[in-house]
Amino acid sequence: MTMTAMAKPEAPSGCFPRAENRCHVVSNAPMNSEYRLLVVDAPETGLSAYAGQFFHLLCPATATEQPFLRRPMSIYRIDRENGQLGFLYKVTGKGTRALASLAPGDELNATGPLGVGFSLPEGTKHVAMVARGVGLATLAPLARMARAQGAMVTAILSARAPEFLMSRDELEAAGARVIEVNDVAGNSAPQEVINRLRDIHAETPIDFMATCGSNRLLGLTRDLCSEWRIPGQVAVEAFMGCGLGMCFACVVPVRDAQGHEEMKRVCYDGPVFGVEEVTAW
Amino acid sequence: MVDLFVTIGGVHMANPIMPASGSIAEGMADLVDLGKLGAIVLKTITPDIRQGVKPPRVVEYTDATLFSIGIPSKGPDYLLNHTVPFFARFGPPVIASISADTAEDFGTLAGYITDPRIAAIEANISCPNLRAHGRAFGMDPVAAAEVIRAMKANTDLPIWAKLTPNVGDIAEIARAVEDAGADAVVTANAILGMGINAETMTPRLGNVVGGLTGPAVKPVILRMVNQCAEAVKIPVIGCGGIATGEDVVEYMLAGASAVQIGTMNFVHTAAMEQSIAWVTDYCTRKNIARVAELTGALKLPVDQNSEQRGAVAL
């Protein structure tokens, strides 16, 4: 019996689009000094995830900590062929410290897939993605989605230093052209990134942009999308209560075309919003 | 075969387990068969449209959360045109929940939403986040009774009064709403609390104060349910930190006729269904034919009267 066959959704199963997926940990290894990659065997409901959606993870109790609420985690890898999901995360607090304690064979209870992910307009030809830090993880599945729809993908990855840069291999495997920038090299300032994007746009016109992980990158994405009159989307992060649109804890102000602001739920109305709708990622 | 049927303040329920107001929304239907619940209690609405308080809105503690949401509300028309039709199709009775700035507004809103698809209205007189008067209606027996009387004057639907635990003597409030005509009391809403970040020297909640909920509050609310059940003849609905079927049984033994599960729905979406199954097994194992027999079946020491439970010498 394979691990995949053992993984099954928590009741109820069948006609429900989301579930408390009882996954099994395949690996949970450090990728560099900051990030770890958690790979799990997931049941079918979990594998129905698409780019930009997330799972709400029940963090295991450790000897010293017992996180009460689940933790939202964007999907880094959706591998339907092998029945696996991947989560790329940085250990920053109680929840991620608990996740880091998971060992191969352990169960991970992952509610999902949740939220509204990226939607690429039909006929999109060239997607430009700009991401920094943990935002890189969120955009990786979008590269696959875009390639599957026949679009070309250019990804600008930003990091504090080259050793903190993640996802290059994942993005290249997905068929994206990858450009790295970092603070040490001094080529990650917004104006530098804008110049790069203008050059790329002049070469092959960009008709969709996506961003995650930095307010400055969100700002420049919004400006360029407005200038080029193309759609752009951002994946927003928030500390959540329920992850299902029930508790209204994870709200952010969202602006409509008339400039009217309404508090919307990151978990249920998002986490992906139009770049013109939100002020912070 | 255990009979799980209960009748609570005019509402007939297939079992005594329902969600607490604000703990489920449309998203829950993507994971859970809502048709299996005893009732479906909706999120509180206000007469006006509200956005809620400034984030951050939640702080996590061990087995507890401190929430301050501020009742975001799309108003009564959205409730009647969207929320009620969405939940009515699952089958269990739908309970609306309302809040307002004045007793008269409670009455007007109760009348406005009176509809055959709604089985009862819960009066949220206890939300600790209300800023209207700096003090919740439920903290004052006179104000609490005024709200219930205003609602009863405007609707024939059963009224459930959801009490606040932030009072010295909750039995006094329970008696006041019973006298005003309430058909049941829900004990209780969240315990007022505060969170502070030592590093930043700032409050952890945008609204500074919030309501403590989750399994950690269970002993406090269990005591209050017991006090309310001994004070009034109308049914008491227990609500406070229930996570499992065993918690449900404890609340019923203390005097509750039904229960609401709140915060645990955020962590385990299967909590309500699993609790129904556990209570069924418990009754079978204990040879209890009707779940209603559990209400108030607590075996107390014979030499301690209920007055003695109003205080404790530590």
UniProtKB/TrEMBL annotation, chain A:
Q: How is the cofactor bound?
A: Binds 1 FAD per subunit.
Which biological processes are named by the entry's GO terms?
A: pyrimidine nucleotide biosynthetic process
Q: Does the keyword Iron apply?
A: yes
Query: Needs which cofactor?
Result: FAD; [2Fe-2S] cluster
The record's annotation in Pfam families points to: DHODB_Fe-S_bind, FAD_binding_6
* FAD-binding FR-type domain residues: 18-120
Which residues make up the binding site for [2Fe-2S] cluster?
242, 247, 250, 267
Tell me which Gene3D superfamilies the record gives.
Answer: Dihydroorotate dehydrogenase, electron transfer subunit (2.10.240.10), Nucleotide-binding domain of ferredoxin-NADP reductase (FNR) module (3.40.50.80), Translation factors (2.40.30.10)
UniProt GO molecular function: 2 iron, 2 sulfur cluster binding; flavin adenine dinucleotide binding; metal ion binding; oxidoreductase activity
Q: Which InterPro entries match?
A: Cbr1-like_FAD-bd_dom (IPR008333), Cyt_c3_hydrogenase_gsu (IPR012165), Dihydroorotate_DH_ele_sf (IPR037117), Dihydroorotate_DH_Fe-S-bd (IPR019480), FAD-bd_FR_type (IPR017927), FNR_nucleotide-bd (IPR039261), PyrK_electron_transfer (IPR050353), Riboflavin_synthase-like_b-brl (IPR017938)
- On whether Nuclease is a keyword of this UniProt record, the answer is no
Query: Hey, which family's this protein in?
Result: Belongs to the PyrK family.
Question: What is the protein's given name?
Answer: Dihydroorotate dehydrogenase electron transfer subunit
Q: What is the lineage of its organism?
A: Bacteria, Pseudomonadati, Pseudomonadota, Alphaproteobacteria, Rhodobacterales
UniProtKB/TrEMBL annotation, chain B:
Offer a single GO CC term for the protein. Answer: cytoplasm
The record's SUPFAM superfamilies line, in alphabetical order, gives: FMN-linked oxidoreductases
- Catalytic activities: 5,6-dihydrothymine + NAD(+) = thymine + NADH + H(+); 5,6-dihydrouracil + NAD(+) = uracil + NADH + H(+); (S)-dihydroorotate + A = orotate + AH2
- For whether the record's keyword set contains Oxidoreductase, the answer is yes
Q: Where does substrate bind?
A: 43, 124
Domain Dihydroorotate dehydrogenase catalytic, residue spans: 4-270
- One of its Pfam families is DHO_dh
Class of this enzyme: oxidoreductase
Any one GO MF term held by the record is: dihydroorotate dehydrogenase activity
**UniProt-listed Gene3D superfamilies:** Aldolase class I (3.20.20.70)
Q: Does the keyword Glycoprotein apply?
A: no
Protein's cellular compartments: Cytoplasm
Q: Which cofactor does it need?
A: FMN
Q: How is the cofactor bound?
A: Binds 1 FMN per subunit.
Which Gene Ontology terms describe the biological processes this protein takes part in?
A: 'de novo' pyrimidine nucleobase biosynthetic process; 'de novo' UMP biosynthetic process; thymine catabolic process; uracil catabolic process
Residues annotated as catalytic: 127
Q: In which pathway does it act?
A: Pyrimidine metabolism; UMP biosynthesis via de novo pathway
Keywords annotated in UniProt: Cytoplasm, Flavoprotein, FMN, Oxidoreductase, Pyrimidine biosynthesis
EC annotation from Swiss-Prot or TrEMBL: 1.3.-.-
Binding of FMN occurs at 21, 43-44, 124, 162, 214, 240-241, 262-263
Can you tell me which family this protein belongs to? Belongs to the dihydroorotate dehydrogenase family. Type 1 subfamily.
User: Could you give the subunit structure recorded for this chain?
Assistant: Heterotetramer of 2 PreA and 2 PreT subunits.
Q: What does this gene product do? A: Catalyzes the conversion of dihydroorotate to orotate. Involved in pyrimidine base degradation. Catalyzes physiologically the reduction of uracil to 5,6-dihydrouracil (DHU) by using NADH as a specific cosubstrate. It also catalyzes the reverse reaction and the reduction of thymine to 5,6-dihydrothymine (DHT).
Name by which UniProt lists this protein = Dihydroorotate dehydrogenase
Q: Which gene encodes it?
A: pyrD
